Amino acid sequence: MATRTQIYKEVLREYDALRTLKAAELRERREAIYMKLPRLEEIERELSLLGVSTAKLVLMQPESREVALAELQEKQNALKTERDELMAKNCLSPSLLKLEYVCETCKDTGYVEDKQCACMKHKLMDRLYDQSNVRDIIKLENFDTFDLRLFSDEVVKAEGISPKENAQRNLRMAMAFAEDFAGDNLLLYGGSGRGKTFLCNCIAKDVLDRGKTVLYLTAGQLFKQLEELRFHRDEEEETLDWDAELLDADLLIIDDLGTEFATMFTASELFRIINDRKLRKRPVVISTNLDYKALMDQYSDRVMSRLIGEYTTLKFFGDDIRMKKKYAR
């Protein structure tokens, strides 16, 4: 899994390759045109030499600077006029002799002065969608497609409200979380198929659309990656890069917590991630099928203290929505 640093370097390499490609295309165009119209090549060469000759003259005879510049301008204009007329006569566009850019704003560098160009931001955003692991699914699962009709209107006595009322509440809180994005944390819990993962995908899309970075992992993916980096690899730089991405991504979503193989390592790493992201004021969204008691049994008191004290909890109950969708087809 690529880190943000690796993604950034990859995009810069793409810009380098693009500029190299465009320069090669320009050389090929010029060679083909010069073969047909040798005078054009002579004109381009004369224009280049004029600039060099005038610069030397200004350095050697600064008192003649104004006269030299005026003569240069006159000769340049004459050559450019001849060039344009020759190309027009042969139905050729002057742009054929110029370097083409995919992005005229940044000249395919990715930067305008010291700021990222819009085209680079778009490229990075595209990679972030891939990196978040939810590119395809969020086309179908987002706030616009969240269907409250799938939830029952019948009040669940133990909860005091219906699954639909509860889903409406959870939806409002999730939308507010994605919009404000002020360092809060969410814990989504309840039985399988109640809509937790769907709501996680909704949040991911909304946050990504706001230009933020989202790292979306199942608990199994997360701890497997951490275990491989800690115990089976020697590339310390890669470990540090992935750790930085894990802790610094604007939003981390851990889906299906509790489905991973539980060990002291997973409990320790979960606490580290939760604690370090808290210190960085980077929000976390966690979904789990486990209730509080099961979470307490599987993870340490330190983890539960963080989850209970610092996470807004959204409980999910009612019918299995996945099964409802399946049999509704």
Explain how this protein is built:
This protein has 329 residues and is of the alpha/beta class. It has two domains: 4-112; 132-328, Rossmann fold (3-Layer(aba) Sandwich), CATH 3.40.50. It has helices at 4-36, 38-60, 65-89, 118-131, 163-180, 196-209, 219-231, 236-248, 264-280, 292-298, 301-310, 321-328; strands spanning 111-112, 115-116, 186-190, 214-218, 251-257, 284-288, 312-316. The strands form two sheets. Strands 4-5-6-3-7 form a five-stranded parallel sheet, sandwiched between helices. A two-stranded antiparallel ribbon has the order 1-2. The longest helix is centred in the first third of the chain and has 33 residues, at 4-36. The chain starts with a helix and ends with a helix.
Give the SSE map:
Blueprint: H1 4-36, H2 38-60, H3 65-89, E1 111-112, E2 115-116, H4 118-131, H5 163-180, E3 186-190, H6 196-209, E4 214-218, H7 219-231, H8 236-248, E5 251-257, H9 264-280, E6 284-288, H10 292-298, H11 301-310, E7 312-316, H12 321-328
Parallel strand pairs: 3-6, 3-7, 4-5, 5-6
Antiparallel strand pairs: 1-2
Helix pairs in contact: 1-2, 1-4, 2-3, 5-6
